[in-house]
Amino acid sequence: MVLGFAMLTVVVTAAITSAVSAVFGGTPTAGCTPTGVGPTDVSGYGPEQLVNAATVVAIGKQMNIPERGWIIALATALQESGLRNLNHGDRDSLGLFQQRPSQGWGTPAQITDPAYAATQFYRHLLAVPGWQQMSINDAAQAVQRSGFPHAYARHEPAAHQFLATVHGSTCTATPTAAWTIPVTGQCTSGFGPRGSENHRGQDIAAPIGTPIVAASNGTVIDSGPARGYGLWVRIEHTNGVITTYGHNNRNLVQPGQEVQAGQPIAEVGNRGESSGPHLHFQIDIGGQALDPVAFYQQQSAPPLCS
């Protein structure tokens, strides 16, 4: 069971490794059909678990997660669901990793897509400072915050067995979501009048260092200091849409760089005219700022603010 983000006590300050620069392009919503699964099975487990393990590994590859991360993800899924895509769990926990819609992990439909669930798990693993130096158990617990904090270690041998079988797996499906949520956090100040000014975006509060990802495919048109924003990234998308990501702690992309939806581009910070760590997320078309929450609804994208 995954407890709420509000219960996370680890303050995310570590830099994202350069290995995530070619992260999987988008938040998968149509699933993943893994190929390259080995001909042998894993004793005590069936075809369902084998396919789900292959999906977890395939997503890890596409996100350029180090192999140790695949083992952590497999051990976590073995503990949480027995590597089954469950439609039930404690309270509203669902899927391979027993992620909870009520705590911001996604909609029930998203969480019960193994590709989406694996992507979410890896994103949060990357945000754990020093996760590659942790034990398998402690790294898994840092993401899950389970009531059974020592339960993951016993699944490490089985995770290695699964990996040996599905090591060659790849994901043949491509993501269909055009827009994805730029950061996991709590929506605070919204679009519209704010005191004597007009707030041109949506603020999403999150700890310093939390990964910010590109909301959609596009080209970076600016990355650096900006008055009021401290440090920002601006991306131009199709149809003249420009997204802005402000108050960043650190930028990970350069002007002219092509990025994919879901690719890490920066880290949440508290620079510029900011009263606390958060992302200022702004959407403009033709120089006109739009309400990001309403824009996401119009695009049939995942809710920007749940």
Structure description:
This protein has 306 residues and is α+β, with helices and mostly antiparallel strands. The protein folds into two domains: 167 residues; 113 residues, Glucose Permease (Domain IIA). Helices cover 25% and strands 20% of the residues. The strands form four sheets. Strands 3, 6, 8, 9, 10, 12, 14 and 15 form an eight-stranded antiparallel beta sheet that branches. Strands 7-13-11 form a three-stranded antiparallel beta sheet, with no helix packed on it. Strand 9 and strand 10 form a beta hairpin. Helix 2 crosses helix 5. The longest helix has 16 residues. The protein is elongated. The N terminus is likely disordered.
What count of domains describes the coordinates? 2
Strand content: 15-25%
Tell me the structural class. Answer: alpha+beta
| Count of separate DSSP helical elements | 7
Q: What is the makeup of the main sheet? A: 8 strands, antiparallel
General shape: elongated
Order of helices and strands: EHHHHHHEEEEEEEEEEEEEEH
